[in-house]
Amino acid sequence: MPRYLSGWLNDVVKNAFKRGYISKTRERPIHDFVQRVIEVKGSGRTPVIAEYKRRSPSGLNVEADPIAYSKLMERNGAAALSVITENTIFSGSYEYLEIIARSVKIPVLMKDFVVTEAQVDTGFNLGADMVLLIVRILTERELEGLIEYVRSYRMEPLVEVHDENELEMALRCGAKVIGINSRDLLTLKVEKEKVRTILPLIPSEVLKVAESGIQSTEEIRELKRAGADAFLIGTSLMKEPDKIKDFVNA
Ligand SMILES: O=C(O)c1ccccc1NCC(=O)[C@H](O)[C@H](O)COP(=O)(O)O
């Protein structure tokens, strides 16, 4: 069982355990996220992971065509796409993952509350190249097992941490791509300082992704100075998709 959880997080995780597995033959090759970030950085641009998210507990509520949105992000230099597949609170779906993965040639992240191997199987089958693993909802043993399982498909997990203890656990389990989420999962408060405190504690060989609450090129530049390699941006791009043009040139 995962760690003790309460409130909406507990409901979301319970739902994740019950979610059906989708059996399909994957149509797309694996797109290597780490390689893509190296290429984007090498070309002098900023690696942005643009997130397709329609609703969120922090109040987002927008409609956007998943294919048009993803193609716009790809055309304007996004390094990767993140697709929310959580279906109860975020109104995401496996269908979005499938159609977005089919429409673009950049890496795609399945962003969900992953607690079972069946969810990983489904992500791979539908075309994901990366899978989010949130340390907060897993025991160390589960995290270790899921990292290995994700890699058995040649996908790479994005291991998400919120504090120093979670970071230590992610590193003990061998995470190579770590996301520092500035949004507290229970209070929903975005604490940007937290990311700047955790970034310097991450070894140089690990790829560092700053997550949540990013709204401006200035914030991206600050996070870069603090050591972030890539930036996961949802709300701000869903509301104003053209901002991608500035973000990739930050
Ligand atoms: O987006 C939320 O409101 C949210 C609330 C509670 C837990 C997770 C949440 N979002 C998941 C994410 O990590 C974000 O979607 C992602 O980092 C992008 O954040 P943002 O740019 O602030 O939409």
Automatic annotation (TrEMBL):
GO biological process per UniProt: L-tryptophan biosynthetic process
Domain Indole-3-glycerol phosphate synthase: 25-243
CDD domains: IGPS
Reaction(s) this enzyme catalyzes, per UniProt: 1-(2-carboxyphenylamino)-1-deoxy-D-ribulose 5-phosphate + H(+) = (1S,2R)-1-C-(indol-3-yl)glycerol 3-phosphate + CO2 + H2O
Domain of life: Archaea
A matching Pfam family: IGPS
Family recorded in the similarity comment: Belongs to the TrpC family.
Name used for this protein in its record: Indole-3-glycerol phosphate synthase
